[in-house]
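Sharing a chain and its predicted structure for anyone who wants a worked example. Both blocks are below, sequence first, tokens second.
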Amino acid sequence: IITSNNSPNIIYAGSGRPDINEGMLDYETKSFGVFKSTDYGNTWYQCKNKGLENTRLYIQSLVIHPSNSNFIYIATYDGGVYYSKDGGDNFINCSSGIPVKNITSLAIHPIYPNILFAGTNTSGIYKTIDSGNTWFPSKKGMDQEASIRSIAIDPIDPNIIYAADWRTGVYISYDCGNSWKLINNGLTTRAVNYLAVSNDGSVLYAATEGEGVFVLPLRKTKDIYFSAETENHKINLYWSPFPGEKYKKYKIYKMENNQKNLLIELEGTVNNYVDENVENYNIYQYQIIGIDENGREYLSDIIKVEPQYNGANIDGLRDKYEWPDIPIYKDPSNDNEFFNIDIKNVYGFTFNEYLYLMVDFYKFDNNGIFDIQIDINYDNYSDYHGGFPFISSGQYSTGWWDETKNPRELISAVGCYIIKNDIIEAKIPLSWIENKTNFNLFIEFIFGDDKTGWKVIDKTPWLNIKPLEITPWHLIYPKPPKNILLTQSSANSILIKWLPSEKGTYDIKGYYIYKETSIDGEFLYPINFIPITICEYEDRNIENGKTYYYKIRAEDIDGNMSDFSEAAEICVKYLEIEDKKSPEIIVNLPDKVYTEILNINGKVKDDISGVKYLKINNSLVEILINGYFTYLLNLKIGENEINFECGDNKGNITKISYKIIYIKRIKIILQINNKIIYIDDKPVEIDTPPLLIEGRTYLPIRYIAEPIGAKVLWDGSEKKVTIILKSNIIELWIGKNIAKVNGYNTYIDVNNSKVAPMIINGRTMLPIRFVAENLGCYVEWDGKDNKITIIYSEGG
């Protein structure tokens, strides 16, 4: 599911496979593919999905162009990458250069949307810089057959890219995908399914298979004071570091039209900047990053600023907002023109102990300050005013009232807050209107100052607030869990049980478990989250002789948290137990692999005495939390034997062995009339491109032979080419359609006698398919793109 940045009411969703959707979609009516909502997800419709007929309509990832909500890209399970420029009705395949069909993830550059990244299930990451017309490998430093489940782009510095490989963990690229390296510190498993970066760029979240969500701090935040002042067509920015902080340079970012762009880079001695490239009445957002001597980045808050006119320009405002015949109020004291404010709507609602009044109006700024008077009574009578200064920067201010008046009959709001350009929110304690179920209010707008006095320039009629709208509504938080029971279930585990929490306003979602080694601990970070259906948890991360304290909090489906439960205490004791059961080794290895380095992921467990050690091919392996392990093993070409040995604390040992064949695979991709060929996804320039002659592909054969280890010999007297690869010997003669393969005469092409070696522009050109297949290669022809793929496998 993806939401449009520039039109948040627009949401796209992609369906999964028919066999795993369990009733979410109707298989019989083929309700699969891309779906769309234009009303924030309240209603959905199926896009036409034209162009996806040859796929299973299994959509694995979607991205939206940052400035065009109708321009989307999708990653499919069996069809590659597609794009649509009409909101999902018509799709066009754009997978040229990606050798596999199973695309698992997509990411689009937020500033340069012509740059995209595509993660594959078995071939790592590919990148495009031309909006998907051509793709090239982006996996230097990463497992060449990585299974990329998620790609995330840093919102602060889009040159930083994160990628999750289900087998090896999390990669980071600092150069927009040109190179990668692993960042797995703190992960207890390498099976990472999803990545997300917080909006302020301070945290990377990694969702794992069975181990929960991990957090990696990326940047410190809010270490810089940042503020702004507005003038006519200007925004003055000011900043200063927190005491003790010092920065070598600053980067100021400006956000407009859903784009975040670097505005300017300044030296660390500068503390202000004036942005004059602004329009009045538009909202701009800014953020500043401080960079220290070590290159670490520190962020400010994001601030919103709206430059406005200092003086009223009525004609200009009429033109800007297309309002004809605005009534004008004439102030007789100073001959200045002022004008009425048109109120669009007033409505109220209650939340907890307050009534909130929302006043939606057209506002103007001028040389004075507007003051908003909100009068409330029960009998259509009012002689009491509560004032709220209207401050254009949107500051909060408290109201005031005259205690000599009659506050029992007329209530005034305590303050207002400008939440948008044209909406004011007033907050009134319900205790002020206690036992009152129906009342009226009107709102006045006055102009002036304390010296010249204040004059009413606009007023609403009496507005009735209905009883239903002021019925007090109270949020009830869930109760904390009770009766927490701790038992030592084994020598290395504690079983925690509790009674379900009593729900509040909303249903219970689940429970957070907290642990400390002191009753005075802060209990800040939970060790796990348990769904509502389970009221127990087994903690295996314990040490003999230590005392642990546990607290639990309930969370409801709206995100409201209960108070902490009472702390439960337990001291871990060494248990003398009888253990005759050997530990269990859980690992799943393939029979064949095509990479030299095998990434082994698995789990060991012993529920009685606990696991003591694990060895792979006699090398000790680190065991992570909950028994998980990962190990990288170099393989030799051909058959490899992998021996596992695991022992528990009672001397029981389990041994298992696997045999895996490492097939060294070399892949060569050529295209007719193209001097760039790809050898194992790396581009190589050749001096003579492949040619299509008599319906067959010709090329100087050394570009095929040498990468796979074959020798090429030339005999000028016989005009003969000899190719030798291990025990295979192929002999071909210029102009002859018969060759020798291991001493036997063989037709080069039984269907076309004209296919024979030839010399073109001084280069010896041989038919590729005949040579490659007789050297033991697999050859595939793509007539659509005029490409030929040659795969040579050794060891299998």
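Comments welcome. The chain has three helices and 69 strands.
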